[in-house]
Structures are given as C-alpha cells and as structure tokens.
Amino acid sequence: MRVPRRPLALALAVVTALGVFTTPAAGAATKKGVSVNNHPGVATALVDVRAGWYYTWASDTQGVTTPAGVEFVPMIWGAGAVDDAQLARARSLGTTLLAFNEPDLAGQAAMSVEQALSLWPRLQATGMRLGAPAVAFGGDRASGWLDRFMSGAAARGYRVDFIPLHWYGSDFSTAATGHLQSYVQAVYNRYHKPIWLTEYGLIDFTGSQPRYPDQAQQSDFVRRSTAMLNGLSYVERFAWFSLSTRTTPTGLYDGATPNATGVAYRSVP
Ligand code: BGC
Questions:
Q1: Nearest CA to ligand 1 atom 5
Q2: Which residues pair with 35 in a beta bridge?
Q3: In sequence order, what are the beta bridge partners of 131?
Q4: What pLDDT is stored for residue 26 in this prediction?
Q5: In ligand 1, which atom is closest to the CA atom of 58?
Q6: DSSP string computed for 195-216
Q7: Which of 37, 57, 100, 205 to mutate to test the pocket of ligand 1 (most atoms within 8 A of CB)?
C-alpha cells in the first residue's frame, strides 16, 4: 500500500538518507559488540574497536571500565550465579540480561532444561529484557536443548525476549558466511524472536585439537559475515569471539594493538 508522504516522513527520509540514523539495535548505537575477559590492554582495545556493547560472561564488568557510549550487558552464567546479590548487581548495571552460558555443554553451565526452567522466574523477576540460555549447538533442532526449553517456558507462561546463539565454523572458505546465515535463519524461522549472536568465529573443533584460520581467512570472514548480519533485520546484536588473543587465538587485539582481524572488525559499522 502506498502511503502519501507527509512533511515529517519526508524529513525523516532525508535524515535517514544522510546516514544520521543507522539501523537501531535495541538501545545500542551499533549491533556490533565484543565479549571481554579482563586482560592487559582491553581498556584501550574496547574503546578502539568501536563496539556498541560488550559483555564479560558475568553479572558485572570484571573490573573493565565501560567506555562512554558503550553498553554493558550482564550475564547470569550458570545455576551458581542465580543469587540475590548477582541478580541485583546485574539489574544495577544493565537493562538487558543474558542467561545461562552453553547449558548443553558439560564444561560450561551444564544444566538440564528442567533446572533452567525452575530458576527462570528469578531471572524474569529482575524485570530486565531477557535472552534465552545460549546453547552451544542445535538451536535449530526440534527437541534439542533450546527447543525443549522454549516449549517449557511457553507452557509455564515465562518470558523470553530474544535468543542468543553461538556459532563456530569449521569450513574456513568463503562459504562460511552462508553456513552461519543458514543457522541463524533456521533458528529465527523456528521461534520468530530477535537473535543475538553472542559468540562466533571460525574454529574447527572436529579434530583432537582445535584448528584456526589464518589472519587473511579470518579477516575476510569478519568482513563478509558482519555485512550479512548487519543486513538481517531480526539480528539485533553480534559479538565476535573475542576481544583479546589472550582469551582465544581468534581474538581481535594483541594487548591494545589490533591484528588484521581487529582492524577489519573495527571498521565494521
Ligand atoms: C566461558 C567463559 C570464559 C570465556 C572465555 C566461555 O566459553 O564460559 O567463562 O570467560 O569462554 O574464555
């Protein structure tokens, strides 16, 4: 349906065309974020990378100083973090809450769906915008961990505002961006909730040791994947894994200095 143009709409269209307004991403100036462990240099790196938001896998900033104009997003990492002090701290430091980290993995939050559901009212009671637990795998699978959690939450009338996802690609070719897009799209098609990609990168976990791409492959993937993610309206946020090479070989900064991948990520709008 064509709507006649009114002066305000015209003015807004002009302002938008000039780039004064970019795609709003639920409060942050940009969808682009980073995960941060407090290693030497991260204070400088976090300013330099031009992220709209960051998180630390914790309910507080872990001693990281939040730069002006950057949003901190707290997390309740696992069952042990569901206590009044951490919930209150999260509420005082942010408006959106990330929930359990990889509950489907033994080495991570390692929770049953029932356990997560039984704790959910405590997270909901913060009144914060609330992300589902971030599964490591199979967010698109019927009867997978996330699917059982989402059905259980719906049956109990619980609130889940968006879906955080993790994704690691083992194919380092230019096909990787399409593989990521298929996954994100499949999860969106199943739940029709906004997606936050809170950990992603290229790491091949299929062998006995993780295999990593070189800087050329990795920075090329940063450029292609972020253009794709910025173009998907239902993707509200994404965060490369991770800010520092002390956290992971896929990191963007060696101390305070960006590597080729960091330079690529820094230039993402
Ligand atoms: C863990 C976090 C950790 C991060 C970086 C995540 O998978 O859950 O606790 O800080 O990796 O090592």
A1: 247
A2: 55
A3: 162
A4: 52
A5: 9
A6: EEEEEEEE-B-SSSS-B---HH
A7: 57
* pLDDT value for 20: 40
pLDDT mean across residues, the chain:
92
Which residue's structure tokens are 């941060």?
36
Q: How confident is the model at residue 22 (pLDDT cuts 50, 70, 90)?
A: very low
11 CA → ligand 1 middle, Å: 46
pLDDT on residue 232: 98
How far away, in angstroms, is 90 Cα from ligand 1 center? 18
Distance CA 133, CA 78 (A): 9
Tens digits of residue pLDDT in 73-118: 999 999 999 999 999 999 999 999 999 999 999 999 999 999 999 9
Q: Where does ligand 1 bind, in terms of residues with CB under 6 Å?
A: 37, 57, 101, 108, 247
Q: Is the peptide bond before 112 cis (omega within 30 degrees of 0)?
A: no
Cα gap 144→201, rounded to integer Å: 22
